[in-house]
Design a protein that fits this description.
Layout: H1 31-37, H2 55-65, H3 70-79, H4 112-116, H5 119-148, H6 158-164, H7 178-181
Organism: Edolisoma coerulescens
Protein name: CFA77 protein
InterPro entries: CFAP77
């Protein structure tokens, strides 16, 4: 019976202190000194890239030689083995051309002299001044347009113009159809 409030113990006994869990490698287990001093270097196998056959060119040349049946084409393909031209596609194992880089290009370094002289602050201030000048010119043009055409709201569309200047109300017409005019008045 298990003890109250405690889990039931299993029936397996643990191995002694000299037992190693997992796989013990005698030849590689030399500690930190061997790991730092003797790196296991794996030599890469040379990658031979096979260029695919160019069946379009071979077929064109076979027709030029007078091949007409499938058997003649097969024999011609065995006789003439033309491969596709290597277009310099970089694949695993190819040599990279000198000067070619991958990833994004590095940002140009920021001139330290410009930082010390607050050059970037001055450039920002000049752009802000130019922006305010442009805003003043635009406001003057809008003011002139509104003086010349007071009903024209430059920023408004038809709906805003009709809200500010509603059209005059139509007068009610007292016209009635002819058939209702012959009705007599009550006495």
């Amino acid at each position: 019976q298990p003890e109250v409030g405690k889990p039931m113990r299993n029936c397996y006994s643990l191995p002694g202190p000299d037992f190693t869990y997992g796989m013990y490698l005698h030849k590689r287990d030399g500690g930190v000194a061997e790991a730092i001093g003797h790196w296991d270097a794996v030599k890469a196998k040379p990658h031979v890239r096979v260029v695919p056959r160019d069946f379009v060119t071979m077929g064109r040349m076979a027709v030029g030689e007078g091949c007409t049946t499938a058997r003649e084409f097969t024999l011609y393909y065995k006789f003439k083995d033309i491969r596709c031209k290597d277009e310099g596609i970089l694949r695993y194992g190819c040599k990279i051309p000198p000067g070619m880089t991958f990833d994004r290009p590095a940002r140009p370094s920021t001139p330290f002299f410009d930082i010390m002289q607050h050059r970037y602050k001055e450039l920002w201030m000049e752009s802000q001044r130019a922006r305010t000048v442009v805003q003043h010119v635009v406001k003057k043009k809008v003011g002139i347009l509104q003086q010349c055409f007071p009903l024209l709201d430059v920023r408004g569309n038809r709906t805003t113009i009709l809200r500010t200047h509603p059209p005059p109300a139509k007068e009610e017409s007292f016209w009635h159809p002819q058939r209702f005019e012959t009705v007599g008045t009550p006495h």
